[in-house]
Amino acid sequence: MKRNLLWDFAFSLPCFLAFLLVILCPFFLGAWYSFTDWNGINYTVNFVGWANYRNIFSSPQFLFSLYQTLLYALLDVVFIHVVAFGLALLVTSRVRLRNVYRAGFFLPNLIGGIVLGFIWQFMYKDFFTAIGKLLDIPGMKTSLISSASTVVLGMSLATTWQYAGYIMLIFVAAIQGVPQEVLESAAVDGAGAFTRVRKILIPMMRNAFTISLFLVITTSFKQFEKNLTLTNGGPATRFLGKVVQGGSLVPLTIYNESVSANNLSKGQAMSVVFFLVLVLFSLMQVVVSKRKEVEQ
Amino acid sequence: MKRYLSVLVALLLTATMVAPTAMAEGDVVITLLHGKVEIAPALQAYADAYSAKTPGVTVKIESVGGGNESWSTVLAAKAAQKDVPTMFNIDGYGDYLYWKDYIAPIEGATWAEDTDYELTVDGQVYGFPVAIEGYGLGYNAELLAKAGIDPATLTTFSALQAAFEKLDGMKEELGIESVSDFGASVAGGMTGKTGNQLFSVYFGAGRDIGDKSLVEKFNAGEVDKDRLTNFANYVKLLADHSEYAYMTTGNYDDELNRFVSRKCVFINEGNWIDPSLKAKNIDFEYGYISTPIDDTMAYTGLYAFAPAWYAISSTATPEEQQAAKDFLNSLVYTPEGQDYMVNQAGMIAAFKNVKLSPAGGLSKYLYEAIQASNTYPFLFGYMPAGTGKTILCNVFELFAQDTSGDALTNFVNDIAAVSTDIATR
Questions:
Q1: Domain limits of chain B?
Q2: Is A14 in Cβ contact with B13 (below 8 Å)?
């Protein structure tokens, strides 16, 4: 059958319209609103130029959120990769019950973010502090998420608990894709377990790291619901002379600004800046990781 | 032929994505969107009875969520779809400012004469007070009696301070962990308790029920430093006699549990906790005192306010608006409406002509205070939306984390800075 423009157009229209309405329109409308004073519902929308952008770059709350978010993403990347890789090695080894472990480690990932936030808030607030007091461990008597200097660590540990199992599955697939002959011949040549992991396994599963890094970075940056239920933005701290929410990552700060304080346009300006930061990080990460991948 | 049929199907599929839904015909249908889920069954029953009794009018109730965030989100979504309900609730003057493009003045509202709590802007009535709620310093009457303290004498800051110190010295004897129960944890969701409710003490303590001057000044960037310092000392008194871990990490449930299980003597709450305390099987007498922030007068009044108002949509047709006004009138002036508000929904009616009194708990104290006109205004709703729950709550939490050294001065300055920020926003 001859290709027909009308046909092509007709069949791509539903998808294209959906994409246009749900992704493209909101994105460009949002970018436009960041240059206005729109509060989200009022009839009159005034153009205010770069005022919202100037405003957010002098806002201690936004800057502190950005800093905490970068720190959080960094901690997530380190913790999740270390834990997930360790777990992946464990469940691909000859250890007994490895399939049970595999399912078990993946299980926390099935708990939704909102519920997980509440669970971990309870864990930090009542459970760990009770153990800390019982065994007289100095660092464990107060909740990790009750101080602005440790709250990001608390959030990151909860995320690791949830997300490491998921990344583990990606690593497991990658490890199983590494040819056994290579590993065996290395073993015959006298390479120890550590050397085999470092010199063969890790270089040969670089493409898995590309994916996992991308996933972890984007999920960390976009963290919202767990942040909301675990810390609600708290605890408070002082930054640049102003009282700010110490445990509020950028998405929660955007939400508070747009929805709770009804400054939708200012929240939109934050979103646009945050979008650019995210694009920058994703591109950098993909370019760097791709360069290191090994063709098999 | 078949080809064109396929194209047609594809286009039809596309069209369904953007086609508007058809409207129902017939009766004047009015919708009330509200966020107070605990009264939803009673309200629904009343609306059904009202619809059955009133020919040509059908009242539909939409109840949304538990927190006050959710109804506004739903309403915003409906506004975006140009489907604003005939009546919707707003939580404060800040909400009024946000929604004012959608709010019609309620002309000829006779009930406005029978209440002090309607929402009036520039002489026009815009909001119907859903109920009255109240606030004060709740106390465990049994423990106070055991310590030989008469709550009626705690009307000045010095008296309260002396009582706190006495109770602090009797901790073991009374079996309590702390005297007061000041929860300031943002993570624990206590943001409204501090940033809205406790901060309203600064605006309202000792003031006339109609006096909004302090909140108006606050919004304009001006604070009364002396009064604010007194208020800070009051907060410091609460904080210094609270259990630290609870204060910095606890949530609402912890707060009520601590009070019910006699771990503390005082609780910073309002009459809305009555049903929860009852559900937790509270087994002692409890009551309310005022919030004495200084020694300049005897503080005896409780705080009273309308936590929500019903507004009528300006996008509704004149018939719908009239039907909505009639519905609101029926709440105030028919026996069924009064019975719904007080007995079925368990609220304190905001109207003087409603003589039914609520049963038990802190509500009874509040009802008596209202009848005796011994009330102070509770004005957090007059701050711009989000001020208390996203900004001031952090100032309180930071103060709770450490009240020593310069903390008190910083607290006062931080609040003044918030006021300046609001005014220049």
A1: 9-104+307-349, 134-305+377-424
A2: yes
Of B98, B58, B59, B49, the residue nearest B76 (C-alpha): B98
Q: Which of A146, A242, A260 sits opposite B69 (nearest CB)?
A: A260
My answer on whether omega of the bond before A235 falls inside 30° of 0, hence cis, is: yes
Residue B29: phi and psi, rounded to 5, are -100, 120
Pairwise CB contact (< 8 Å): B69 & A259: yes
Distance CA(B134)–CA(B200), nearest Å, equals: 12
Residues 6+ apart with CB under 8 A from A130: none
Assign domain B9-104+307-349 to a CATH class: alpha beta
- The region, left, alpha or beta by phi > 0 then psi within -120 to 50, assigned to residue A267 is alpha
- 3-class state of residue A284 by DSSP: helix
Q: Which residues of A touch B99 (CB under 8 A)?
A: 41
Q: B134-305+377-424: same fold as B9-104+307-349?
A: yes
Facing residue for B76 by CB, picked from A40, A43, A125:
A40
Chain B touched by A233 (CB under 8 Å) = yes
**Interface touch B191/A247, C-beta < 8 Å:** no
Interchain contact, B185 vs A234, CB within 8 Å: yes
Residue A94 CB neighbour total at 10 angstroms: 5
Interface check A142 vs B, CB under 8 A? yes
Q: Is the pLDDT of residue B230 over 70?
A: yes
SS3 string, B27-67, reads: CEEEEEEECCHHHHHHHHHHHHHHHHHCCCEEEEEEECCCC
- The answer to whether residue A162 sits within a structural domain is yes
d(CA B144, CA A159): 46
The answer to the question of residue A9 being in a domain is no
CATH code, domain carrying A265: 1.10.3720.10
Give Cβ neighbours of residue B46 (< 8 Å, ≥ 6 apart).
B331, B336, B337, B340, B344
pLDDT single digits (tens) B3-18: 666 666 666 655 555 5
pTM for the whole thing?
0.87
Residue-range definition of the domain harbouring residue A272: 56-292
ipTM of the complex: 0.88
- What is the nearest CA distance from A213 to chain B, expressed in angstroms? 29
* CATH number of the domain located at residue range(s) B134-305+377-424 in this protein: 3.40.190.10
Contact B185 A129 (CB under 8 A): no
- Tell me if B186 and A11 make a contact (CB, 8 A cut-off): no
Query: Among A252, A255, A233, which Cα is nearest to A244's?
Result: A233
Any B CB within 8 A of A127 CB = no
Q: What average pLDDT values come out for chain A (296 residues) when binned by 10 residues?
A: 80 92 93 91 88 92 95 96 95 89 92 89 92 87 89 95 95 92 89 88 89 92 92 92 94 91 92 93 85 63
What is the secondary structure of A171-230 as a DSSP string?
HHHHHHHS-HHHHHHHHHTT--HHHHIIIIIHHHTHHHHHHHHHHHHHHHHT--HHHHHH
CB contacts, 8 Å: B13 with chain A: 14
CB contact (8 A) between residue B394 and residue A17: no
